[in-house]
Amino acid sequence: MNAQAERHEAGDHVVLGKLTSPYGVKGWLKVYSYTSPIDGILDYGEWVVRQDGVLSRLRLVQGRRHGKGLVARLEGCDTREAAEALASAEILLPKSALPALPSGDYYWYELEGLTVVTRDGQVLGQVQYLFETGANDVLVVRGDPHGEPAAIDDRERLLPFLPEDVIVAVDREAGRMTVDWDPSF
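RE: above sequence
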């Protein structure tokens, strides 16, 4: 397989999906995409693939929807054995390659790790991750009373990501999100 070693740190990248298993005998792989829409991952002609901690650049030769999922073929991956060698690798993209978003829109990775504070200054914890519910995205916020800054408790809270209703302000530079939320919930 013709892959170039990637010199960037993994922190310079965002995970877009995962290569799950071979598809057929000609080097195709099933792809699990975290993008929305799911085939948005196919818009990027070059992927950084992380496997066993090693980052490699691979060019996307072809990709398409297949049933409810996706399949793709990468340059240099022409046999089932080559595809098996890539199974379970993560697909990354340099953060710098992501398109700019309008003001007030965020990539999920930009919100993860932010300290969540109520309007009156009570620290609820940090955003651990987000998930979709269909109606709106949800922030998973976990408190740590021994953290920096110390949270009011060690609870895990699920906050709907509703700008202007729940989310009052996001200050990525300060690492802070202000919310209109009753800490007893």
